[in-house]
Write a structure and sequence with these properties.
The protein has a single domain, classed as Beta Barrel (OB fold (Dihydrolipoamide Acetyltransferase, E2P)), CATH 2.40.50.220. Helices cover 0% and strands 44% of the residues. It is built from no helices and seven strands. A five-stranded mixed beta barrel has the order 1-2-3-5-4. Strands 6-7 form a two-stranded antiparallel ribbon. A hairpin with a 2-residue loop joins strand 6 and strand 7. The protein is globular, with a radius of gyration of 15 Å.
Length: 106
């Protein structure tokens, strides 16, 4: 499994019938501290992730093991939204609670 940050979405008006209803997200690879390390994947969202979420995702044959991706043409799937990454007893990444996040400006 890999860590990534959701940086965008892909919208497809037309897609194969067994992918109808799937949400496609652009995931940038990150390290255990949440720092970008280059490269992007398009992943099917199985957990309701959104832009700027740090996520756990899997690729290749493992990506076709979830309920919504089984027997579908999927190379990457998001399987978790990361709250904390701990290494040797020390938190290396901590998700910012929504009430502490900066306000959204339109």
């Amino acid at each position: 499994m890999l860590l990534g940050k959701v940086v965008g979405t892909v919208v497809c008006d037309q897609k194969v019938s067994n992918m109808a209803g799937s949400k496609f997200l652009i995931v940038e690879k990150v390290d255990y501290k949440g720092n970008t390390c280059g490269g992007y994947e398009i992943a099917v969202d199985a957990v309701g992730a959104g832009t700027n979420d740090v996520v756990l995702y899997t690729m290749e044959s493992s990506a076709r093991q979830t309920g919504i991706t089984k027997d579908r043409p999927v190379d990457a799937v998001i399987v978790g939204i990361v709250d904390t990454v701990e290494l040797s007893g020390e938190a290396k990444f901590q998700k910012v609670p929504i009430w502490q996040a900066p306000p959204v400006r339109f």
